[in-house]
Design goal:
Largest sheet: 6 strands, mixed
Number of domains: 2
Order of helices and strands: EEEEEEEHHEEEHEEEEEEHH
Number of helices: 5
Oligomer: single chain
Structural class: alpha+beta
Helix content: 10-25%
CATH superfamily of the largest domain: PRC-barrel domain
CATH topology of the largest domain: SH3 type barrels
């Protein structure tokens, strides 16, 4: 993955596309787009209609638009028959969301970020039992990442072929390209990396995607298991 893979797709091109929530539930199909919201229709006989503010969108993967809300939140907040009035969108939560997205993705006003599909992340839980955990790549984005000494080092921004991109900071942003072989655990909300916080920046911080050779060298640096006494 490179920086060009995180460009954007025009809002107008999303009509007819499917929408999924952040708990990976299919919500419905985009019927129309207003200045501030997306109209989604679900069902065939008994239809439901949702008007979701645009800034709750996360990314488009070539097939589906992902929104940063659960299906339950959508049904509770945005299921209705008529589009919302402009003043209904002026909640503090939504203003903060809009400010955050505009800062991270200045192109958001014209289109939603495009993120190409990547391989799922596979974690080996118990090598002796061949026990593995397979996590769909789209469920990984925005999850927290913590070091081996339990320090929060940021959130996953992208998933590459064999690595994750972790973004830390708001004013001063750092990006860490961490091979998936360094991931030792996942508790449902955070991934744990087998590297102390003091070595995260020297080891993984960079401004461009690692080449296959650089990624191979990083993977070879993976710390060995320390025998338990």
């Amino acid at each position: 993955m490179n920086e060009n893979n995180l460009n954007s797709i025009s809002w107008n091109e999303l009509t007819g596309k499917d929408v999924k929530t952040n708990d990976v539930e299919k919500l419905g199909e985009i019927k129309s787009l207003g200045p501030d919201f997306i109209e989604i229709e679900s069902g065939h006989v008994s239809k439901s209609r949702y008007y979701i503010p645009k800034y709750y969108s996360k990314f488009y993967d070539g097939d589906d638009l992902y929104i940063d809300l659960s299906k339950k939140e959508v049904k509770e907040k945005f299921e209705r028959e008529q589009p919302p009035l402009p003043n209904e969108l002026e909640t503090q939560e939504y203003i903060d969301r809009k400010t955050k997205m505009d800062k991270e993705f200045p192109q958001f006003v014209d289109g939603v970020p495009f993120m190409a599909k990547e391989p799922d992340i596979v974690l080996t839980l118990d090598p002796n039992k061949n026990e593995q955990l397979k996590i769909p790549w789209n469920e990984v984005v925005n999850k927290h990442v913590r070091s081996s000494d339990n320090v929060d080092i940021g959130d996953i921004e992208q998933v590459g072929n064999g690595y994750i991109v972790v973004r830390e900071g708001v004013a001063k942003i750092r990006k860490y390209y961490i091979p998936t072989s360094f991931i030792e655990n996942y508790d449902g909300s955070s991934f744990f990396v087998k590297s102390p916080s003091g070595l995260i920046s020297p080891r993984f911080e960079r401004t461009t995607e690692p080449s296959p050779e650089e990624l191979r060298l990083l993977q070879e640096e993976k710390p060995k298991e320390v025998p338990k006494v």
